[in-house]
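Contributing new records

If you add data, match the layout below exactly. Sequence lines come first and carry their own label; structure lines follow with theirs. Keep one chain per record. Anything else will be rejected by the validation script.
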Amino acid sequence: MGLTADDFEEVIIDVWPDVWPAFDVFQAASTQWRVGMSGATGLDYNCLPWLMRTHGIDDEATALHDIRIMERTALTLMHKGA
């Protein structure tokens, strides 16, 4: 796309160690957004069980809760200027 590092604001995001496994799954699902006429609407949850197994998540319920918080925050930021 021709973008360079200068095209982005420097943003540092701290991830707490207890949320890191869910963050890994969220990051791995970064290409799995469902998109409609108004843009992204949410993650495609069909891939999450496989990603959780791949990343060795034992407590899937807690990981899903954490991922949904990340998803909601990401959607808010994506639609901020819309």
